[in-house]
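step: validate -> pass
step: tokenize input -> pass
step: predict -> running
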Amino acid sequence: MTNPALNFLALALYVAVGVLLVQRLVRGQGDATRGARLGVLALGLGAAVLHVVLLYPALRLEGGLNLALTTMFSLAAWVVVVLYLCTSTLRPIDYLGILIMPLAGLTLLVEWLWPGQAPMPLTSGFQAAHIVVSILAYGLLCLAAVQSLLLLYQERHLHARQPGGLVRALPPMQATETALFQMIGLGFVLLTLTVASGVFFSEETFGRPFKFTHHIVLALIAWGVYGVLLLGRWRLGWRGRPAIRLALAGFALLVLAYFGSKFVFEVVLGR
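step: predict -> pass
step: emit ->
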């Protein structure tokens, strides 16, 4: 949908949420009042609603979906925002919005300025379920990656004995790590379903026999990294920087698996 007013309004709401969260955390107000939290979440919900209104026409094609690079980036960002807003009502993870919300606005802007088309017919309900589960897995693991970055920031400042306003406002590291591994655990389950449906049920999902591609290989390596991380946490109590680095490495591999080939074909090769 080409609607500059709605695009700018959605972008403004995303940026406003990020700015409000930064201001709150810099002032050391990690435990905001219920009214203040609801106000910020309401702005985020408004941005998410405008986002999907703008995204839906770009995503939907006759008999299938538009899986162009910028459209998929925007869709993934919207899913991350929705997961963030839903989780924020249950757990105090508002601080993740300082990165998530502005970046979601950026993906919306990029999709508007550089739209593309890469049609993919939907041939079965199995295929549609595979796409939904894969996007949810990516969204949860993206939230975990953002959590990892903030946890790394928190750890570095505490070790350097520089607990500034932002660090003081963040939850205790133990609570942050617990939330991180809960996200990774659920994301890993969904990623397992995604990989299994793509590898073992390729005929039902895509209507063609399975074959190894760089997308599959990278997804399998990412799955292995997350599996090792969760096993190390369970058996050896892994935490701190080694766990954070593995979480970020796994997500980097997922980004390459999901978007790497699209970037090469659409941007580098111009196909």
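step: describe -> The longest helix spans residues 125-159.
step: cleanup -> pass
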